[in-house]
Sequence to fold (645 residues):
Amino acid sequence: MDFIGEKLLQVVIALAVFAALIGLIMLVVDRAPKSDKEKITVIGFLAPAAILLLVGLVYPAVTTSFLAFTDSSGKVNGVDNFVWIFTQPEALVTLRNTVIWTVLVPLLSTSFGLAYAVFIDKARGEKVLKALVFMPMAISFVGAGIIWKLVYDYRGPGIEQTGVLNALRVALGLDPKQFLLDAPGNTIFLIIVMVWIQTGFSMVILSAAIKGVPVELVEAARLDGANPWQQFVNVTLPGIRGALVVVLTTITIATLKVFDIVRTMTAGNYDTSVVANEMYTQAFRAGEPGRGAALALILFLLVLPIVVYNARVLRQQREIR
Amino acid sequence: MTVTPTPDGATQKTRVRKSQTNKEVTGDDAAPMMRRVKTKLTSRWATAAAVIIAVVWTVPTFGLFVSSFRPAAKQVGPRSDGWWNAFTDWQFTFKNYVDVTASAGSQSANLSQYFVNSIAIVVPVTVFVLVLASMAAYIFAWGKFKGRDAGFIFVFTLQIVPLQMALIPLLTLFTQVLQIPPGSYAQLWIAHTMFGLPLGIFLLHNFISEIPGEVIEAAKVDGAGHTTIFWRIILPLSVPALASLAIFQFLWVWNDLLVALVFSGGTADVAPITQRLAEISGTRGNKDYLNPAAAFVSIIVPLLVFFGLQRYFVRGLLAGGLKG
Fold:
């Protein structure tokens, strides 16, 4: 167990260096001459985060954008990488899968989450019921991958099944199925894993939103003779519109970037790859950083409309304040 | 860890709706006026549907949990069967857990090493992000300078730049320009801190900007400078938001695989437990029966954090979530 000591020492040194840096900044800000104090404070407080963001996100994003137009030896090759992405069958499958993912995951997670939030609203044991569905949020994608591999486990016909789903199929008189091997159905089975994780998120947000809908409105609708379904569609749904948008956009972004699930469950084989996974494969496994960068750029372009929309909402809110 | 959420109380006047929902979610005390007529959709069918969803959502994890205690012969090979048989055929063992954590040798999963790595990566990153993000969030909320709002919105949009875009150039920068030695945690610490900052600044800003201006003005009148206000007033008042961000950051870094794959080099000296888990579950072989136990060793910490601090976790989600 001697390795622990050495590792902890690294941690302690890092924390000490960090504390010294922050202390230094505070000292400089505190001692600044009165005339420039505000300016120096702004710089001192903002500089560490700004530098890290510029180096860690802005600079790489710009570089990647250029890299996307080069080949594996670093020479500029125009739009060849994009031509490759939009013409090669394997790359097209990747794009198709990404579209399926981004349509299905937000839709299903939000629907399940909303239904569940409505069903358990004010039910007995609401907290426990919530925790059960919310729990997958805390589990890593890698762990989720292992959990679901076990669910999808396959043994040849006639042998005792170890996966829940195939055991059910056999019990119903069907043949066991290779859930993760047969395209295009296997993509759907990967998507289920993501839905399993994200439903908890949408459920928590939507549940809170539902409770925020004024009681009087629901009550009034009920007195006017609206049945539960009408109350839900005409009062509750409009009341939680904002939360719905947030949930949908957040899950969409998370889905576009999905990597770990595909990586651990099929590694993108059997026609299950998505853009984020293919980007990793091309850039770090196949020695094609240009193609990887091009895929990353496409990912960014796909996310961009959502960014613009959110930024607009944010600006409006700040103006209201 | 009991915290009195002062700013919550302070913002109650301006944002009644939100504080009400918070109260509901934490489930402490539902105000009587919030008690809804129970004729909604809570019919028998709805309850049945809810129970089915709850069961379907729980069974996969439960199955893995049961499997992790089953002997090797029951999980793989000719005598293996489904985990649900464990309840009729009562055979449980701790051997899998001992094997994945304690047994030595190059073939062993050796998870205890990777477990320590995960902690050594997560703890400093969480501290770095909390301190740097709260400093930036404070200035974005209460500093006076040109381009403040534009700057903040720019940081917000950075949140959504895909990580994937940053990986290739950043790796080049770390290894070739800055010459950060591989086989140390430094690359992972810096990378994770960079990627955690946008969300951190955004979440904390939401909270810090709603601390009443009078509190800060009063401190200024008493002669307090920015540093004093930041450490003595802002941070203590922001504890609920800091707690939720800390949980987020902790879970996010602990569960990460992509950043680890790119920056850790993959050795037992640095690589986190998720990376090792992906490795051993990715290679099919006669050690497959260890996967469930290995997975649970990696899941247990986030689950404890989640169940222990659920209240703050939810509050953090709502801080950013209900604004739209």
In short: Residues 113 and 203 of chain A are 4 Å apart (CA to CA).
